[in-house]
Amino acid sequence: MRLMTLLVVSTLFAVPAFAQKSQSSSNPNAVQIQGNTEIKADQKNVTAVAVGEGNVAKNTAGAIKGGTQIQGNTKIKASQKNATAVAVGKNNTAANEAGVIGGK
């Protein structure tokens, strides 16, 4: 009887552990890197302005965005100077991206 109880309790604790393991690795927005990664980014005098509802304006230098898989060594050297991203009006997007891997 004790052996049966021990087996049932062990099974109850083991099943959630396996489920958590598979959920964390199946994230489509995860960044997976195998190897060394070196990022050197520099931004000077950058401006991002979004005016209105639902607008996006961004300046990005040296980034690895979601949903990206990299195998091997990676070096990113990015520099932005005097960059401006402006989005004015409904549903507009403006972006200055230097040294960016992945993303949409």
How would you characterize this protein structure?
The protein is α/β, with parallel strands linked by helices and 104 residues long. The protein contains one helix and eight strands; from the N terminus they run αββββββββ. 23% of the residues lie in helices and 48% in strands. The strands form four sheets. Strands 1-5 form a two-stranded parallel sheet. It is flat and about 40 Å long.
Summarize the biggest pleated sheet.
Answer: 2 strands, parallel
Order of strands in the sheet with most strands = 1-5
Approximately what portion of the residues adopt beta-strand conformation? over 45%
Q: Strand pairing plus helix content: what structural class?
A: alpha/beta
Number of helices: 1
What is the mean predicted local confidence, pLDDT?
79
List SSEs in N-to-C order: HEEEEEEEE
Ends: how far apart? 57 Å
Shape: flat
Tell me roughly what share of residues is in helical segments.
10-25%
Outline the low-pLDDT stretches.
3-9, 14-25
> What is the number of strand segments?
8
- The radius of gyration is 22 Å
